[in-house]
Design brief:
alpha/beta; seven-stranded parallel sheet; 11 helices; 40% helix; NAD(P)-bd_dom_sf
Length: 317
């Protein structure tokens, strides 16, 4: 039995992780901005804002976990969000957690990073036929807060591996998560009457089923292997393949035209997305999962195509 503290424990992913760890017999502390409406039996739920450095240090000093699972971040900003607030949570909050781990003598930290940390670049995965491996550089994109912040977090972790190797790290660069109850800004793209693509770009997606992510995090806590791992199912699906599975048409737009339309639309307040969004559609990071399977020791239960199909037919059985 291990003592595990989970930041973001009341979120979508955190809730499943906390429940799984408690079910496995670990001593679990779930830390988040709110206590869940239905607390997990046997779990200590504490209110914690990771932007409060003193509170983070105090919480870890009091709970003395063996392992910290750091999930707290802002993936989908709300209407009242700001770049400053997002950075305070994603970057400063991570720094507070890592500093507190060192001060409290935590043995291992498991961090949920993202494929977005690689960034959206035309030469992504050029050395491996378009597939990104863990040895490819983490470049992010300044224009995308989440991508930029995950890059900064990964640079912070790399520095810490050099200066404090006693704190073991498992860093998970996670692709697009799908599951029975998943609805987010990515799946919203697939709910539209017509799917949008940049002309001349396949815009492939890699998917991972949510129960696989939970199993991987649990293994990261208790297993012997540390390091950085892409988290995705085998293979990828292009926008055209996704549209065919959904039975929907594809709207193929030249990049300059879409960029101009987004620029005008944001200026008029018709859309929250700006012209930089074309990079998100055009140069998606496609994650190779070889190291996840051969080194970490987990083969996803569903391929990207199987995960998408399971999400597509959810609730129809």
């Amino acid at each position: 039995m291990l003592g595990v503290l989970v930041t973001g424990g009341s979120g979508f992913l955190g809730t499943s992780v906390v429940g799984g760890l408690a079910g496995a017999g670990h001593r679990v502390v779930s830390a988040d901005l709110r206590v869940p409406a239905q607390p997990v039996p046997g779990v200590d739920h504490v209110v914690l804002d990771v932007t409060d450095r003193a509170a983070v240090h105090r919480t870890l000093a009091e709970t003395r976990p063996d392992v910290v699972v750091h999930l707290a971040s802002i993936v989908t900003p709300g209407k009242d969000s700001s770049r400053e607030r997002e950075r305070a949570v994603d970057v400063d909050g991570t720094r507070h957690v890592l500093d507190a781990c060192l001060a409290a003598g935590v043995r291992r930290v498991v961090v949920s990073s993202s494929g977005a940390a690689y960034g959206y670049h035309p030469d992504n995965g050029a050395a491996h036929g378009g597939w990104l491996t863990e040895d490819d550089p983490v470049r992010g994109n300044v224009e995308f807060a989440y991508s930029d912040h995950k890059r900064q977090v990964e640079e912070m972790l790399a520095e810490l591996r050099a200066t404090h190797p006693e704190l073991e790290q498992v860093v998970l660069r996670i692709g697009t998560i799908l599951g029975e109850s998943v609805d987010n800004q990515i799946t919203a793209l697939f709910e539209r009457p017509r799917l949008l693509k940049i002309r001349g770009s396949d815009s492939p997606f890699v998917f991972i089923w949510d129960t696989d992510v939970v199993a991987i995090i649990q293994r990261a806590i208790t297993g012997p292997v540390t390091g950085i791992f892409n988290v995705a199912g085998d293979g990828a699906l292009s926008i055209d393949e996704i549209a065919a599975r959904l039975g929907r048409p594809v709207l193929s737009v030249p990049e300059p035209l879409l960029r101009a339309a987004l620029r005008v639309g944001r200026r008029l307040g018709l859309t929250a997305y700006g012209p930089e969004q074309t990079r998100f559609l055009q140069y998606r990071p496609v994650l190779a999962n070889d190291r996840l399977k051969t080194v970490f020791g987990h083969t996803p239960s569903r391929t990207s195509a199987e995960a998408f199909e399971a999400w597509r037919v959810r609730g129809r059985a």
